[in-house]
Amino acid sequence: MIKRFYEKDANIAPLQGKKIAIIGYGSQGHAHALNLRDSGLDVVVGLPESSKSRAKATAAGLVVVTPAEATKMADFIMILVPDHIQADMYETDMAPNLTPGKTIMFAHGFSIHFGAIKPPAGVDVSMVAPKAPGHRVREVFTEGSGVPALVAVAQDASGHALENALAYATGIGSMRAGVLETNFREETESDLFGEQAVLCGGTAELIQAGFQTLVDAGYAPEIAYFECLHELKLIVDLIYEGGLNYMRFSVSDTAEYGDYTRGPRIINDATRAEMKKILSEIQSGEFAKAWIAENKAGRAGFLHMRDSQHGQLIEKVGAELRSMMTFLKRKKEEGIPQE
């Protein structure tokens, strides 16, 4: 059974008197930096001179320096910039300043598992990966609780890498909820698969296919939007709170019967075979190789796919309908910085 850790299993002492560098101040970066600071630890934020996030971090009362300076002065360096820029930043700013005895940390194992970053032998390499977006990590912490996290060690040069990682998890509040031990391979491959097959890729395609099926059959786009996108949150919230059985208990018997009898016709043997193929592409490194190559080539294909989605009918109808919903907190795509 997977090993679990709670507050009784660790404390923050290994980080006290040490300097912690948070590289990046986006979704996860701001949460980690502020939570660690509020836990009484010595935190510095590493951001390029050109970063727009510098003003936000400074306004929050944090010390901001360049990634190179942060790496040089810190004992623990948590890299929280996006996967596609980690390797270049590491080679330019961090590698020259990584001396023996330091610890380099991640919240996702992509760069280590697929070899984009290869730390020297004398440093610890560990992971603390909260299982929630950064704003939620911060919000729950300020409420006196924490979100669950995963912990892993890829290189234990000091002999204390796990102990130190658990101390870090204590500092961001995750030990209040519980931390599960894993490894870089398992975290990386399962995370990519979940994103591609279910959480992002699978869900987005299912929503759009359902919406288009109704619209093509003559139903109003507004009605299709409510049935295939808007109400999804209601169902997901039930699943989140109590699992699939709680959702089925909470919906009508008609919906439950449709779930059992029609769901397997949507997610069928062909779908499962494609899921296995997607997983194998992740495991072999094929996906990572394609994503790394896409970024090195300037991201033209990725940006074209992004732009093509913005003009979809479901997005236009959704924007109009959401403007009616005064209870929604408006979220802009550019609202969360990427570094």
Task: Summarize the structure in words.
By secondary structure, the protein is an alpha/beta fold. 55% of the residues lie in helices and 12% in strands. It has 16 helices and nine strands. A nine-stranded mixed β-sheet has the order 1-9-8-7-6-5-2-3-4, sandwiched between helices. It starts with a strand and ends in a 17-residue tail after the last helix. Residues 333-339 have low confidence and may be disordered.
Content of β-strand = 5-15%
N→C terminal distance: 36 Å
By DSSP (H or I, 4+ residues per run), the number of helices equals 16
Give the overall silhouette.
globular
Strand and helix order? EEHEHEHEHEHEHEHEHHHHHHHHH
Task: Give the strand order, joined by hyphens, for the main sheet.
Answer: 1-9-8-7-6-5-2-3-4
Number of strands: 9
Question: Any idea what the radius of gyration is?
Answer: 22 Å
Spans of at least 5 consecutive residues whose pLDDT stays below 50 are 333-339
The largest sheet is:
9 strands, mixed
> Helicity, in percent?
40-55%
Mean pLDDT: 95
The computed structural class is alpha/beta
